[in-house]
Amino acid sequence: DLVSLKTTSGTFNIPSNQFLSETAEITNKKGELFKGVMIGETVEEFIVRTNFGDAIVQKRDIRTMKRYHGGILDRQSEDRRKFYQGEAQLISVFMDPTAFPLSGNTFYLSGLSIGYGLTDRFMITTKFGSNFSGDLNLHPRMRFYHRKSAEKEVAASWGIGLHRAYSTNSIVGKYSHAVNVTTADDSVFALNETEIDVADIMKKDQENILYATAFLVFSSRRVNPTGRGKVGWSAGARVSNAFVKRDDWLKTTTTIDDKTIKVSWSDDGKYTVPFRCWLSLEYDLRTNLKFVGSAWIDNGYKTLDLEQTMEDYFGNDGSASFSLDSPKGDVSMIDFDFGIL
Questions:
Q1: What average pLDDT does this structure show over 263-287?
Q2: Is 216 in contact with 158 (CB distance < 8 Å)?
Q3: C-alpha–C-alpha distance, residues 227 and 84, integer Å
Q4: Where residue 79 falls among pLDDT bands split at 50, 70, 90?
Q5: Beta bridge partners of 109
């Protein structure tokens, strides 16, 4: 039998028994081996005709692969630089969420929270440090928009955070740079610039409050044209009710080291509503390695050195353990960070 092969150089009639099949040996992450003729390939999967039927293998599930052309190994098929996507799919970059929630029936654990994906669209997390302090909290997230093609995926999600007994000390600590301390000679300092403890300026009868946050985030990721996994970005914004009734928390005056000082919230307009806006990036370097970066505008953000961060995380600075709400640090409303995960 003759087979007609049309090329840009012309049409050729070739005996069918002279065609050399492309074959493959694919091992997935479960250890299953697929060996046979390669009959199809898309951006996301391979189709292999084995002796027992046609197998569809997702590229993201491949551990090793060898391709043969006419029985000759294609060395490029062993190139580890080529992969479909990284093993880890981020639900957040640093502390900012993406619009891609956990997959259904997936457990999540980080240094600040634990969570679970109830469905592919809905997940819940909780900050265990706050729970240990008696502040039970839930942070649900819902993906309300999703579009996916072979090369690109976009999504939008909303989320809220509810704390039943959030410490007002933590709020004042986080926004200590928005608290003015006026000395007897009328010199004005931000609380974070002094050695005064948050507890020294708080009213003693102050109770914990019902605290809520809300955010909206849009994310996009696509196949990298180089073949190195995927590249994605997210943009979002978050607000909270942290400043509701804040004037009721602080003493108007207090005495420290036999000196009387005045305490008040700053009347600067940028501290009217607590907010954070961010733009983050993720880039697959290898199947188990990602580059991530983020830039933000946050009126509650301060930079801390490593020692201050560790004291804050473990509660050695008087704040709650397993949380980041130190009154120390330098104000940095606009900032960025990057790293390798």
A1: 93
A2: yes
A3: 7
A4: very low
A5: 114
* Residue for token pair 């960070």: 337
pLDDT of residue 211: 95
- Say whether pLDDT at 322 is over 80: no
96, 236 Cβ separation under 8 angstroms: yes
Cα–Cα distances (Å) from 55 to 38, 258, 323, in that order, read 10, 81, 48
Q: Quote the pTM value.
A: 0.73
Q: Starting at the edge strand that comes first in sequence, how are the strands of the sheet with 137-148 ordered?
A: 106-109, 113-117, 122-127, 137-148, 152-166, 209-223, 230-240, 275-286, 289-298, 334-340
Instruction: Parse the chain into domains and list their residue ranges.
Output: 8-78, 92-340
The CA-based diameter of the chain, rounded to the nearest angstrom, is 105
Exposure letters 13-42 (e unless 16+ CB within 10 A, then b): eeeeeeeeeebbbbbbeeeeebebebeeee
> Going by CATH, does the domain composed of 8-78 fall within 3.40.50.720?
no
Give residue 80's pLDDT.
Answer: 45
Q: Token digits for 168?
A: 């007002």
